[in-house]
Amino acid sequence: MSLRTTLKKVLPSISITEQEALDAGDVWLEGSIYQGKPDFSALRAVPKAELSAEEQAFLDGPVAELLELIDDTEIQNGKHLPDYILDFLKKERFFSLIIPKEFGGREFSPYANSTIVATIATKSSGVAVTVMVPNSLGPGELLMHYGTDEQRAFWLPRLSNGTDIPCFALTSPEAGSDAGGIPDIGVVTKGMYEGKEVLGLNVTWDKRYITLAPIATVLGLAFKVRDPDGLLGDKQDLGITCALIPKQHPGVELGNRHDPMGIRFYNGTTRGNNVFIPMEFIIGGQKNIGRGWQMLVSCLGAGRGISLPALGCSTSHVALKSASEYAAVREQFGLSIGQFEGIQEKLADIAGKTFLQESMRVLTTEGLGLGLKPSVVTAIAKYHMTEIGRDTLDSAMDIQAGKAIQCGPQNTLAKGYVAQPIAITVEGANILTRNLMIFGQGVMRCHPYLQSMVEAIHSDDKNADKEFNKIFRKTVGYSVSNSLRSFRLGLLPFSAGATSALAEVKPYEKSVQQLASKLAVYADFSLLVLGGKLKQAELLSARLGDVMSYLYAAMACIRFYEQKVDAEERAQAAPYFHYATRWALMNAENALLAFLDNFPSGATRKFMRLITVTYSAKMPKISDDLIRELAEQAQLDTRFKKKLTHLVKSVPGDGHYINEQAYKAKLDCLDLLKTVKKALRSKTIQAGVRFSQTLENALAANVINADEHKKLVDYNLKRERAIRVDEYDYDLNILAEHSELKVANQ
To answer: 180 CB contacts (<8 Å, ≥6 apart)?
Structure first.
């Protein structure tokens, strides 16, 4: 019995839906990481993401106007998004960011799409999701790639100008993560349409969690097709299919709403029972019956890398801006709380992770801008950027404490905190993404020979043994090469290559090479020892996926530091860069060590340790000095910090504006504040019960003059306004405000 025949009995075959998912995406930088040789040349050759003049004008115009229109407190206290918001989104074609100009769309780049969605999300999650969905997975993108000429010509202009609002229905009560198991069925039959008998399908469906469904005028629908009467051939089960059905079509039910965490975006259900649709409703026409899953995963790969990572990144921008400004102006025990090391630890973590978030957002959208659909990279971005967004928001909530939990217009964090689980859950729960998708897809897509080997194992071709043996020899050679390289880098880490022009980057580049070489070896041994069981060993495969993810994040940090930070900003950006890159490398190494500690075969575990020279953690650590340095840098109003908070556009009167005014006023008064504090320490003046009284004493003692007193009083009013929280009448109906503090915003 040949080796191929033996493996065929042991290894499970790849299902049709799994194969379509594997075939749908592209392999990009993650391929070189998995293979143990991260391609920094390819990384540095990626064209730099920049907004075009048209894209910048849209941000400066319609997006800025939208932010002024949004009152998120009003939205959250209502039942729906206000009509004036929806009308504005339609008028300014916010739903057409990805639609080609020839159909009336804006045809913006993935980077611009991400920036627009993220900017809106800093103001309102509900409005951001409303904009996000039509520009992500939905009828628009499916039509662009797979629709007939007639479908594109009819639907895309209507979607562009808001005449029609789309939604796409995939998730069923019985099939969430296992989308291939959807129970919704379309039966091929003949029926009446527009007064004629035509070939079509009787479709029955029950869908939930469908964003925009309550207001949609056109329904994208995924279902399985069966042909029991053989009207299309001799095959009965034809596979998942996508159709586009107008809301007014007889039998379509759209309208019931869910209530996702109280966030006021439209999300709901759609149902239909034996609804007859003609073949022309199928996206791409009759020839695309059964191609639905391939179409979906192909489009999802791009959308997943834009919208949800944008939400995660926007959360980090808000957390950094809000927490750093509050830490600078909030004082306790005579000091700003940003000088306390406990606060600094949280603030540094926010700042470093925001650098990492922005780095990953930029790099991922740059890859998508090349026309690629890297399914593994977009899964990495979706999982890690939404999770890191949750981390930074938690830390910002801790820093702002009581201010962060009192809802109202001045609170910059609470609504995002409530909405955060939505991004974690949408387009596949994060547990699924981490434990099954990242390494599960990566091992098949990124290994140079594995997919071909599996196909040869299960092939019935007469030359299958010969083809398998050829691939097997290449696989063995590949694994031996990986092992030798990893042993060399483990024994002689300085021998790793580094081509960066910046001395501070080279050690990190070498560290990425070292860790990736170990990943390649561990992945090979996992396949060799566990085989098909690796699919069920989710804890182990998730850790290998984490290594891929964190090394991709480290590469993103390196690229951002090299290409997005100019020479004048290097000193400002350095602590952010060091923290973010070290954090990514430490997590990658910890995942490798946890993988080794829990590998089920003791002998293999010892051999892997030996061949990769891995017995303890060796990556550079985040020191207390780095934490203090970064926390101090994050509280400065530098040009680089503006880059990491550029998504937040403060509007006069909102919480960000109030905090920002106090923060800038304090920075403008630092020398005067030092003078007053020096006078207090020397007992030249006495402290008042309130700081305003202290300032009166300083003026009376000629420690400060009248103009300086006026300047400090203005700062103090703004400071008091920033540390206060919204308050209401007894029944929470009317927002109350202390009259003396209104001066601060006049």
So the answer is: 15, 16, 17, 240, 293
- 3-class state of residue 260 by DSSP: coil
User: Is it the case that residue 20 has pLDDT exceeding 80?
Assistant: no
DSSP strands (E only) in 281-426: 331-332, 335-336
Q: How far is CA 95 from CA 91, 135, 163, 215, in A?
A: 10, 6, 10, 14
Residue 434 confidence class, pLDDT cut points 50, 70, 90? confident
C-alpha 592/C-alpha 70 separation (Å) is 46
Report which DSSP code applies to 172.
Answer: B
pLDDT of 21 reads 60
Rounded to 10 degrees, the C-alpha dihedral 418/430/312/110 comes to: -130
What pLDDT band is residue 3 in, cutting at 50, 70 and 90? low
User: What b-and-e string marks burial along 57-74, b requiring 16 or more CB atoms within 10 Å of the CB?
Assistant: ebeeebbeebbebbbbbe
Question: Could you tell me the two tokens for 478?
Answer: 């590949």
pLDDT band at 744 (very low <50, low <70, confident <90, very high): very low
Reported as a single tens digit per residue, the pLDDT across 605-617 is 999 999 999 999 9
Q: How far apart are CA 106 and CA 702, in angstroms?
A: 61
Rounded (5°) CA angle 53-58-60:
90
**Computed from CA positions of residues 735, 737, 739, 741, in that sequence, does the dihedral angle turn out positive or negative?**
negative
Are 585 and 515 in contact by the 8 Å Cβ rule? The answer is: yes
- CA separation for the pair 112, 97 (Å, rounded): 9
User: Per DSSP, what are the bridge partners of residue 257?
Assistant: 268
Report how far residue 14's alpha carbon sits from residue 20's, in angstroms, rounded to the nearest whole number.
10
Task: Decide if 151 contacts 164 (C-beta within 8 A).
Answer: no
Q: Is the pLDDT of residue 739 over 90?
A: no
Residue 746 above 60 pLDDT?
A: no
Q: How many CB atoms lie within 10 A of CB 240?
A: 25
Biggest CA–CA distance in the chain, Å, is: 101
Band (pLDDT 50/70/90 cuts) for residue 187 is very high
CA atoms within 13 A on the CB side of 637: 14
pLDDT at 303 over 90: no
Q: Is 215 exposed, middle or buried (0-12, 13-18, 19+ CB in 10 A)?
A: middle
Helix or strand or coil: residue 268?
strand
Residue percentage of the chain with pLDDT more than 70: 95
**Count of alpha carbons within 13 angstroms of residue 696, beta-carbon side:** 6
Q: ∠ at Cα 89 (86, 90), nearest 5°?
A: 90
Cα distance between residue 596 and residue 584, in whole Å: 19
Ramachandran angles phi, psi of 191, nearest 5°: -160, 180
Q: Beta strand pairing status for 335-336 and 267-278?
A: unpaired
**What angle do the packed helices 464-491 and 450-457 form, to 10 degrees?**
150
pLDDT at site 743: 44
Q: Which residue has the tokens 């611009």?
A: 112
Q: What is the predicted pLDDT for the residue at 80? A: 85
- For residue 472, the model assigns a pLDDT of 80
Which region holds residue 262: left if phi is over 0, alpha if psi is between -120 and 50, else beta? Answer: left
Q: Is the CB of residue 318 less than 8 Å from the CB of residue 357? A: no
* Residue 560: closest CA among 348, 360, 739, 416: 360
For 45-106, the DSSP string reads: HSPPP---HHHHHHIIIIIHHHHHH--HHHHHHSSS--HHHHHHHHHTTGGGTTS-GGGT--
Asked if residues 84 and 91 have their Cβ atoms less than 8 Å apart, the reply is no
Query: Which two structure tokens, joined as six digits, stand for 637?
Result: 């109003």
C-beta separation of 223 from 240 below 8 A = yes
* Strands 166-169, 185-193: pairing kind: unpaired
Residue 672 neighbours by CB distance under 10 Å: 18
| Overall average pLDDT of the 393-410 stretch | 94
Instruction: Report whether pLDDT(45) > 50.
Output: yes
Active site residues: 427
